[in-house]
Design goal:
Elements (H helix, E strand, L loop, with lengths): L1 E4 L12 E3 L2 H8 L5 E3 L2 H32 L4 E4 L7 E6 L1 H10 L9 E2 L4 E3 L1 E10 L2 E10 L36
Parallel strand pairs: 4-9
Antiparallel strand pairs: 1-2, 1-3, 5-7, 6-8, 8-9
Length: 181
Amino acid sequence: MKVILTDHVEHLGERGDSVSVKPGYARNYLLPKGLAYLDTPGNRKLFQQQQSGWQAMDLERRSTAEKIAAELARVELHFERRAGERDVLFGSVTLVDIARELEQRGFELERRRIRLDQPIKTLGTSMVEVAIHRDIAVTIPVHVVRPGDQAEPGQEPAGDSPAAEPTAASAGPSGSDLAAG
């Protein structure tokens, strides 16, 4: 089934692209969410008429995203977690932990915008990418320290004590490197 995208759809295309998708994907996801129109001559004409308004909206979104990116670039997150002798955490720092901390600092971001391939399971600093707009991303440092260890000056450690307790997640493989996107 051919559709015209009305917005950027990850792994599919940009606004205005005519793409072929499976009928179920179009009927159950793209069309109900307003992300696409059926690719018909009438809808192409309608799309061309609406395009100038969308371009203005895109400029506004991009401007807002650049402001958020500038603020987010100054952020460093700190988490206190208990760890074993080899600096492997009892538990992990997850995407949910990072999203909550960013939310507490006033950043209202969708969790899918935070690119964390796997939970952080070791002490140290990991770099996490946050995609604010389709072509604007910021990499922020996430520091994980033991409770009582000195955090960076002027920074408060994130996370509450129940989250720092050992969990069943500590049985998984350890990984200290994060892919930045």
